[in-house]
């Protein structure tokens, strides 16, 4: 395969994923004009398995490939696609998801974070929580309430992109039970972002979030990587001797 022929363990993450991007193998189910190959999801799974089987470095860039990219391609403007998609595909800019709030987790439609229009800018205020890898991210996609008077709580929500270095954004890593820091609390205090960082239509963000979450649910299985890990476990078990036979035989 192309992957097997070109994978070199001496490559950096960026070099490898730039090669994949330029050869249209990193996101094969995406449209061909945006670094894909117009393959089906089933065919894309085969490609992912080949990448994992080769022992190649996994996708960079946080949630860019899995979530931000497909949503921007589906709902973004041509200018947004040209600005964000290349750096999402090669991982040069990392992304995080700002959806959940202290009182809006499973009931996501209850979010209180607000975005108010002020001329050519949105002013965002609110708090998000459980934001994976936010401390390493360059950009975020945030759900914010742009119409507080909408007839139902699923309405009046918009999908907005923001650079994590924007003044007014602060975060605090949350220490997990294993001692690691993967998730974060994030605060928005009068954060101003350009109006053109709204994705799709104003107040239609709930529909875009459902589309995005469908990609999350189908993308986190990591079938190729799981098969690679399972193969490694079997190999180690076959070499581990017990009183009678090997651990694998047991």
What does this structure look like?
The structure is a single chain. With 250 residues, this protein is an alpha+beta fold. It is built from seven helices and eight strands; from the N terminus they run αααααββββββββαα. It has helices at 2-6, 13-22, 41-53, 64-75, 78-90, 205-219, 223-239, and strands spanning 95-98, 114-118, 121-128, 139-145, 157-163, 169-174, 183-194, 198-199. The strands form two sheets. A four-stranded mixed β-sheet has the order 1-4-5-8. Helix 3 runs parallel beside helix 7 (223-239), helix 4 (64-75) packs antiparallel against helix 5 (78-90) and helix 4 (64-75) packs antiparallel against helix 6. The two termini are 36 Å apart. The model has no long low-confidence stretch (mean pLDDT 91).
Strand order of the largest sheet: 1-4-5-8
Task: Supply the number of helical segments.
Answer: 7
Strand content: 15-25%
Tally the beta strands: 8
Percent of residues in helices:
25-40%
H/E series = HHHHHEEEEEEEEHH
Low-confidence stretches: none
- The end-to-end distance, rounded to whole angstroms, is 36 Å
- Spatial shape: globular
Protein structure class: alpha+beta
Mean pLDDT: 91
Give the oligomer, counting copies of the same chain as homo and different chains as hetero. Answer: single chain
Largest sheet: 4 strands, mixed
Q: Give me the Rg, rounded.
A: 21 Å
């Amino acid at each position: 395969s192309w992957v097997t022929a070109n994978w070199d363990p001496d490559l950096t993450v960026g070099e490898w994923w730039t090669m994949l991007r330029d050869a249209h193998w990193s996101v094969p189910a995406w449209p061909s004009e945006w670094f894909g190959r117009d393959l089906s999801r089933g065919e894309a799974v085969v490609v992912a398995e080949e990448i994992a089987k080769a022992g190649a470095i996994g996708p960079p860039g946080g949630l860019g490939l899995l979530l931000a990219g497909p949503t921007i391609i589906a709902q973004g403007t041509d200018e947004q696609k040209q600005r964000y998609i290349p750096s999402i595909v090669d991982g040069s800019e990392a992304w995080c998801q700002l959806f959940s709030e202290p009182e809006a987790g499973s009931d996501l439609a209850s979010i209180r974070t607000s975005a108010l229009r002020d001329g050519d800018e949105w002013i965002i205020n609110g708090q998000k929580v459980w934001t994976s890898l936010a401390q390493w991210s360059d950009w975020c996609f945030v759900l914010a309430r742009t119409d507080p008077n909408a007839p139902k709580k699923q309405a009046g929500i918009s999908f907005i992109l923001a650079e994590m270095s924007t003044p007014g954004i602060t975060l605090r890593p949350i220490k997990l039970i294993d001692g690691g820091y993967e998730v974060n609390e994030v605060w928005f205090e009068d954060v101003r972002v350009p109006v053109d960082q709204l994705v799709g239509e104003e107040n239609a963000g709930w529909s875009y979030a459902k589309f995005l979450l469908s990609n999350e649910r189908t993308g986190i299985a990591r079938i190729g990587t799981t098969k690679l890990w399972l193969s490694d476990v079997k190999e180690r078990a076959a070499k581990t001797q017990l009183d009678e036979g090997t651990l694998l035989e047991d």
